[in-house]
Amino acid sequence: MEVTNRYVAIQAHIDSTTAPQETKFVANRYVTIKAHIGGAPKDSDFELKSETVPLSLAPGSQDVIVKNLYVSIDPYQINRMKHCSSSQKFSYLAAALAPGEIVDAYGVGKVVVSGNPEFQKDDLVVGLITWAEYSVIKPGGMLRKLDTMGFPLSNHLGVLGFSGLTAYAGFFEVCKPKKGEKVFVSAASGSVGHVVGQYAKLFGCYVVGCAGSKEKVAVLKEKLGFDDAFNYKEESDLAATLKRYFPDGIDVYFDNVGAEMQEAAIDNMNIGGRVAVCGVISEYTDGARKAAPNMIDVIYRRITIRGFLAADFTNVYADYMSTTCDYLRTDKMQSLEDISDGVESIPSAFIGLFQGHNIGKKMVRIAEE
């Protein structure tokens, strides 16, 4: 009798492991653009859609299905949403988006199903996912396992993500600072700017930032330790304003804005000044608004103006992570994060970037871990 019962139990186990398993389906909500965007983004430019997707893979598939937890919201995406932008030609991360196409973005997620031997179920991952609740990552996709190192998941999209690397590489590798130099940071309360300013202070520079509200200016001076800061919206003559804050001139300008602010900064730069052009958010939604710095000054003051991408500096990644993690653990550096909740909040979060709503790194929490 005992042998029979054991046989029945073994056979039941075999049947359960070999019988076809019922496929689980989930509703996947995602965000698309309805048409190409020509100016500032607005609610009517976006559409929240839903599709039913299986949480299973075909035999032999090496895809990875990821439950998205956080997605990064970045200004450069507006250039992908335009009918045409020169940025679309020079980086695969800035490739054009077609209306109706799901938007890919940097983010953090958890593996649900994996056909890729490099990933297992429940692995935390970081890389290129989507503005959606679930992402299917094809072989060769930009995805890696995430070691949180004891930091919140959200930090890995900001100070420990592309924003942090951009700030570190732009300041140290492009600007080549010297201790005691005078540093100006525009959009200084944004995802990159607030990190740049802290690196500069910790390195031993004099740092002034500009932002678009009294609240942001207070954060720069009182929380992040900037030597000074001003609200550019209250200033009618930017060149005169910068002369007031930098009576001895600017050595380093970290440019996140472009247009008139770049012109004013170059008007006030010292001989041998360096400009790191990280972003030109003031120009993204206004094609007629362009910076026109005085090129005579650029020549005779021997000013270096250099655009760059974080991807240009993977060689400093290890140093960047080591330095930044140490600063965070010892409370020498603060991470500012502006987090909205739910995939449905992605359009308003993105639109808010161009209206100056965010303080720090903007992201959307899609789901809890």
Quickly name the level 1 CATH class of the largest domain.
Alpha Beta
The total count of strands amounts to: 15
Radius of gyration: 24 Å
End-to-end distance, in Å?
Answer: 48 Å
Looking at CATH, the homologous superfamily of the largest domain is NAD(P)-binding Rossmann-like Domain
Question: Quick check: average pLDDT?
Answer: 92
* CATH architecture verdict of the largest domain: 3-Layer(aba) Sandwich
The major sheet is characterized as: 7 strands, mixed
Low-confidence segments: 1-20
Number of helices: 11
What general form does the structure show?
globular
Q: Percent of residues in beta strands?
A: 25-35%
CATH topology term of the largest domain = Rossmann fold
Q: How many independent structural domains?
A: 2
Assembly type of the chains comes to single chain
Percent helix among the residues?
Answer: 25-40%
**Content-based structural category:** alpha/beta
What is the H/E order?
HEEEHEEEEHEHEHEHEHEHHEHEHE
In short:
The protein has 369 residues and is of the alpha/beta class. The protein contains eleven helices and 15 strands.
Task: Walk me through the structure.
With 369 residues, this protein is an alpha/beta fold. It folds into two domains: 24-157 and 336-365, Medium-chain alcohol dehydrogenases, catalytic domain (Quinone Oxidoreductase, Chain A, domain 1, Alpha-Beta Complex); 162-329, NAD(P)-binding Rossmann-like Domain (Rossmann fold, 3-Layer(aba) Sandwich). 28% of the residues lie in helices and 26% in strands. Helix 3 crosses helix 4, helix 3 (162-174) packs across helix 10 and helix 6 (238-245) crosses helix 7 (259-267). The two termini are 48 Å apart. Pfam families: ADH_N_2, ADH_zinc_N. This is Enoyl reductase (ER) domain-containing protein. InterPro entries: ADH-like_C, ADH_N_2, ER, GroES-like_sf, MDR_fam, NAD(P)-bd_dom_sf.
